[in-house]
Amino acid sequence: ADAIKALLPDGVDFIPGHPMAGREGKGYAMASADIFNNANYILVPMPENKENHILAVTSMAMALGCAHVVRVSPEKHDRFIAYTSCLPHVLATALVNSESMDTMTKYFVAGSFRDGTRVADINAALWTSLFLANKENLVHEIDCFRKALHDFAVMLSDEDAEGMTRFLQQAAARRRDLVYETHSR
Length: 185
Hints:
By secondary structure, the protein is mostly helical. Helices cover about 55% and strands about 5% of the residues. It contains 7 helices and 3 strands; from the N terminus they run αββαβααααα. It has helices spanning about 1-5, 50-65, 75-95, 110-115, 125-135, 135-155, 160-180, and strands spanning about 15-20, 40-45, 70. Strands 1-2-3 form a 3-stranded mixed beta sheet, with helices on one face. Helix 3 crosses helix 6. The chain is globular.
């Protein structure tokens, strides 16, 4: 944001922000008229931004179809993005790049594998830059995910059906809360 701000003429009130509304692939062919429907919009206002301008960008996002507009600091933005955007892209590409993927795999694929790997059709150059720009936060999220996988593997190895059931129930409840949440922050 500071680099962009330095390039702008005086009098321009640049308000950093972006929708959370990407799709797999790249290029004009991936465009969609309804891409913003029910999307989240993230604002990262700077101290000098005028409140009425922030509200104008908020109104624009809502008019485009976004369901939520949230304001965060740059640091919080980068932490959340590492978890909700960067990590899923790493996981999808790791799943597809697993040594278990072979020529027969496509005959055993259903919805969960398609959903989990959708973003593996990635703009590699763009995402490499995004990962490197948010490296510390992404490494932290990979470590957290690795711990969750390890915990599950231990429960599985120990045949801890009770622990596995709690783990899965907690995930189901969190997912339902995520999907059916309807209020803005």
